[in-house]
């Protein structure tokens, strides 16, 4: 770490970073049902600002509308998948080594979490999860949930809200996410970004960025 560059905060995505990626569950579901590979991811990625997923994560539609919209969007890409069937695939398992890294980071720096999540009553939402998740969320100085504020990543405003809430300069922040599209606005603001492929790789890069031992 160079002397003229000071880390003040580490900002984390939740799903696919502190938990295992839902992509594996998507692939299993598709294989079991004989669906085209990646139909769920392709539906999520198509028109990603205004699709069913985006609207649901901003709490603009209820579960019934999400179910039908997602079915129509996936059908247009070649195979119908009900939105309701996708929700239970989202939860993922907490990665203990990432939670430990977060604990160690919190001892030295400010911490934030920006999560594209679902309205609290939806299956697969953080609100419906265990006490352990609540304990992990308590390690953050500030949490921004898309469903509560009506904005979602990669909208640049959500990143600005976080740095303002933490009272830090984006140039002095590290941001971790498992999706490249969500890293881009953070990088353009001047943050150091880490694309999370797996826990060990992410922790190694975070150690390099912060100068901390995180294992």
TrEMBL record:
Pfam families: Hydrolase
GO molecular function, one term: hydrolase activity
Membrane-spanning residues: none
Xref: Gene3D superfamilies: HAD superfamily/HAD-like, Putative phosphatase, domain 2
Top-level taxonomic group: Bacteria
UniProt keyword list: Acetylation, Hydrolase
NCBIfam families according to UniProt: HAD-1A3-hyp (TIGR02247), HAD-SF-IA-v3 (TIGR01509)
Name this protein carries in UniProt: Putative hydrolase of the HAD superfamily
Phylogenetic placement of the source organism: Bacteria, Pseudomonadati, Pseudomonadota, Alphaproteobacteria, Hyphomicrobiales
């Amino acid at each position: 770490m160079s002397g003229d560059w000071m880390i003040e905060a580490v900002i984390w995505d939740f799903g696919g970073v502190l938990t295992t990626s839902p992509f594996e569950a998507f692939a299993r579901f598709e294989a079991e049902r004989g669906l085209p590979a990646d139909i769920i991811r392709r539906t999520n990625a198509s028109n990603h600002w205004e699709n069913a997923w985006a609207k649901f994560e901003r709490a603009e539609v209820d579960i019934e509308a999400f179910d039908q919209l997602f079915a129509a969007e996936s059908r247009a890409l070649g195979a119908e998948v009900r939105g309701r069937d996708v929700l239970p695939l989202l939860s993922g398992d907490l990665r203990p080594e990432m939670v430990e890294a977060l604990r160690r980071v919190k001892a030295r720096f400010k911490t934030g979490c920006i999560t594209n999540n679902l309205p609290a009553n939806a299956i697969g939402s953080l609100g419906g999860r265990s006490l352990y998740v609540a304990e992990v969320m308590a390690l953050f100085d500030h949490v921004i949930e898309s469903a509560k504020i009506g904005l979602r990543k990669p909208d640049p405003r959500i990143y600005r809200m976080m740095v303002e809430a933490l009272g830090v300069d984006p140039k002095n922040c590290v941001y971790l996410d498992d999706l490249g599209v969500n890293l881009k606005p953070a990088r353009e603001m001047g943050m150091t970004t880490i694309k999370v492929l797996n826990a060990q790789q992410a922790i190694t890069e975070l150690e390099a960025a912060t100068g901390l031992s995180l294992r």
